């Protein structure tokens, strides 16, 4: 490590000393503890990829050709890799002829993988690596036909964020290095490949596909999917890809996408990526969505039938500004991606669906945040989190998302919406296609907002928001009048004034249902706490109340993933056994980590629950994504037999 630290610092000095005036090299380089790369000495600018997608072996096999900028002439190129089988490395001057080169692969670290070091001959500016991936690559998921919606063809998709790109491409896997790329992908003839690049929906399905991404993007946004995919247009520059049996449902659910793009542009400036398409993946996708540029990857669990879960699309679309255009320079700056995006997501929802919807989403966000803060250590409640020596995926809590969004809400409320919108628009413009640190953001905020209005600035404790745990006392507390109505009805039912069938739920949105269920659970818990003995509810009583709700509203068979998840969580907590078969079915068919991790955690709290969890997990595990598997293994202290 000392050697890399040394090279790194030297690189910075040289870069500043010899390249003044060149914007790219002038980018302040933050130490990224999650990459071996030395971008201050040698910086990758462009990558040409060429693979065969070998479903039978579950590997990608081919080449990555990297074009580099030599900032420090005597330094080798250092790349990140994880479980890659490197066969051969070649170098070239200007892409003319490639000559064999020596290379070394260092010792593998559990989190970081292994550095691949290539000494560069004088003037060499291209490096070609012949390699294949491992069948267990952390960034690839290979699905057998039964794991897809259509059940006939296999499926492959990638998930590169945070540091999984290195498991399928040897590259400088740090968000502060931006590259353009091309790719040629060979697949079985009946399948279509799509990437986070220019996709041609009408390309002949011949198993040979070419792509180009001409805007510089960080490594974690390089993405590929291969499957039996169809396309539907949603608007002049928007569309959706999905398996044939899902495509119509997906197109209906996502029909507001074009409107969302137009709305976002109105406030935050032009959409700079050309097309905006969405790929609906099979259910094992471990996340809600992934903002791969030009092609958001999304879980099918958002297809609720009533557009109530399309906040996810608003979120991933917002990343086209916050995250993809202005990118966190290291994973400790992750809140610059997610806090801004969660804030923008709610602004888009407000513009398209009205203020009450925004209030509901913000109130639910605050509740989740408070619940999570109650369980986190102080160090994990800090926006500018220290992740040195840890897996950057550990930083993916509600803190960067909800606390970050609440901070921006505080700024908006303090400085006024018009001023704050103007500030954000110029921020996106100023740092477009750059990767920046928290310090750079704070500097820009100070210069362009705080210092202009010192009296208002005094009302926002910026340092406390960014560098301290918990929430400042002056933090906004978003509330929703619609939720207050829901709570009143829930209260009347809980105190047995009215039966469940008299609760007027006909016009409830998913958000109102979630609030209702969470309110009921909270009432159960406060009634069960010491000192509340007068209203204490026995376990049997709680299960009886849940049974009444279930009869009235058919919650156990709910096809709405968010409602089903909340209901199943309550069922475990209150030992409501009639929901257990559905719980098992849910855990076997959905791989979204946001849902399955809390369910396994809740089960693991009692010995019988843990036994049940292990029985289900034994069957479900092979269908989950490696990222979800890593999380659940830890929850259940799983040891592969
Ligand atoms: Zn996000």
Question: What report would you give on this structure?
Answer:
It is a single chain. With 641 residues, this protein is of the alpha+beta class. 39% of the residues lie in helices and 18% in strands. The protein contains 20 helices and 21 strands. It has a 7-stranded mixed beta sheet, with no helix packed on it. It has a 5-stranded mixed beta sheet with strand order 15-16-17-19-18, covered by helices on one side. It has a 4-stranded antiparallel beta sheet with strand order 9-10-14-12, with no helix packed on it. Strand 1 (42-54) and strand 2 form a beta hairpin. Helix 8 crosses helix 9 and helix 13 crosses helix 14. The protein is globular, with a radius of gyration of 25 Å. Residues 1-26 have low confidence and may be disordered. It binds zinc ion. Zinc ion binds next to helix 6. Residues 315, 319, 338, 341 line the site of zinc ion.
Keywords, please?
641 residues, binds zinc ion, alpha+beta, 18% strand, 7-stranded mixed beta sheet, globular
List the topology elements.
Elements: H1 2-18, H2 23-26, E1 42-54, E2 59-70, E3 77-81, E4 85-92, E5 99-100, E6 104-105, E7 114-118, E8 126-132, E9 140-143, E10 155-158, E11 178-186, E12 192-195, E13 208-218, E14 224-227, E15 230-235, E16 238-242, H3 247-253, H4 257-268, E17 276-280, E18 289-290, E19 295-298, H5 311-318, E20 326-328, H6 334-353, H7 355-373, H8 398-415, H9 417-430, E21 434-436, H10 438-450, H11 454-457, H12 462-467, H13 481-494, H14 510-527, H15 539-553, H16 561-573, H17 580-589, H18 593-603, H19 607-620, H20 626-635
Parallel strand pairs: 1-11, 16-17, 17-19, 20-21
Antiparallel strand pairs: 1-2, 2-8, 3-7, 4-5, 4-8, 6-7, 9-10, 10-14, 11-13, 12-14, 15-16, 18-19
Helix pairs in contact: 4-5, 4-6, 5-6, 6-7, 6-8, 7-8, 7-14, 8-9, 9-10, 13-14, 14-16, 16-17, 16-18, 17-19, 18-20
The structure holds zinc ion (ZN).
Zinc ion is lined by residues 315, 319, 338, 341.
């Amino acid at each position: 490590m000392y050697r890399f630290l040394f090279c790194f610092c030297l690189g910075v000095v040289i870069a500043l000393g010899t390249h003044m005036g060149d914007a790219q090299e002038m980018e302040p380089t933050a130490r990224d503890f999650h990459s071996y790369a030395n971008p201050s000495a040698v910086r990758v600018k462009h990558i040409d990829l060429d693979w065969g997608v070998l479903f039978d072996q579950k590997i990608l096999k081919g080449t990555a050709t990297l074009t580099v900028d030599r900032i420090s002439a005597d330094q080798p190129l250092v790349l990140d890799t994880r479980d890659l089988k490197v066969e051969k490395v070649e170098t070239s001057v200007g892409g003319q002829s490639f000559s064999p080169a020596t290379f070394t692969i260092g010792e593998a670290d559990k989190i970081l993988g292994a550095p691949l070091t290539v000494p560069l001959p004088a003037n060499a500016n291209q490096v070609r690596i012949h390699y294949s991936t491992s069948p267990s690559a952390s960034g690839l998921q290979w699905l057998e036909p039964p794991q897809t919606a259509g059940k006939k063809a296999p499926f492959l998709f990638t998930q590169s964020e945070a540091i999984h790109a290195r498991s399928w491409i040897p590259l400088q896997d740090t968000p502060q290095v931006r590259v353009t790329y091309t790719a040629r992908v060979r697949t079985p003839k009946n399948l279509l490949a799509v990437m986070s690049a220019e996709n041609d929906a009408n390309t002949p399905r011949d198993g040979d596909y070419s792509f180009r991404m001409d805007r510089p993007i960080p490594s974690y946004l390089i993405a590929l999917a291969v499957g039996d995919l169809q396309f539907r247009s949603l608007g002049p520059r928007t569309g959706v890809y999905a398996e044939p049996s899902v495509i119509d449902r997906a197109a209906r659910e996502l029909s507001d996408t074009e409107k969302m793009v137009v709305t976002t542009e109105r406030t935050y400036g032009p959409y700079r990526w050309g097309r905006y398409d969405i790929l609906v993946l099979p259910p094992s996708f471990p996340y809600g969505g992934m903002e791969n540029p030009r092609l958001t990857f999304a879980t099918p669990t958002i297809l609720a039938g009533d557009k109530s879960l399309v906040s996810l699309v608003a979120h991933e679309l917002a990343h086209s500004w916050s995250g993809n255009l202005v990118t966190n320079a290291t994973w400790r700056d992750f809140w610059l991606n997610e806090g801004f995006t969660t804030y923008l997501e709610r602004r888009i929802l407000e513009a398209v669906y009205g203020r009450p919807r925004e209030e509901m989403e913000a109130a639910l966000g605050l509740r989740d945040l408070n619940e999570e803060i109650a369980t986190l250590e102080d160090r994990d409640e800090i926006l500018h989190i220290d992740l040195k020596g840890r897996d950057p995926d550990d930083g993916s809590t509600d803190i960067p998302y909800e606390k970050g969004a609440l901070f921006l809400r505080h700024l908006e409320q303090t400085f006024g919406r018009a001023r704050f919108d103007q500030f954000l628009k110029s921020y996106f413009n100023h740092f477009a296609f750059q990767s920046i640190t928290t310090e750079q953001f704070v500097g820009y905020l100070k210069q362009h907002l705080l210092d202009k209005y010192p009296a208002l600035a005094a009302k926002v404790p910026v340092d406390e928001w960014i560098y301290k745990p918990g929430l400042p006392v002056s933090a906004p507390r978003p509330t929703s009048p619609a939720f207050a109505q829901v709570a009143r009805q829930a209260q009347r039912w809980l105190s047995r004034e009215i039966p469940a069938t008299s609760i007027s739920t006909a016009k409830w949105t998913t958000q109102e249902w979630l609030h209702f269920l969470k309110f009921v659970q909270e009432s159960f818990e406060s009634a069960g706490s010491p000192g509340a003995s007068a209203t204490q509810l026995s376990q049997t009583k709680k299960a009886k109340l849940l049974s009444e709700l279930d009869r009235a509203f058919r919650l156990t068979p709910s096809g709405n993933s968010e409602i089903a998840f909340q209901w199943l969580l309550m069922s475990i907590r209150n030992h409501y056994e009639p929901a257990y078969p559905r719980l098992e079915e849910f855990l076997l068919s959905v791989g979204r980590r946001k849902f399955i991790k809390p369910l396994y955690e809740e089960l693991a709290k009692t010995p019988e629950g843990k036994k049940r969890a292990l029985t289900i997990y034994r069957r479900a595990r092979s269908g989950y994504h490696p990222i979800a598997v890593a999380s659940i293994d830890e929850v259940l202290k799983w040891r592969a037999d």
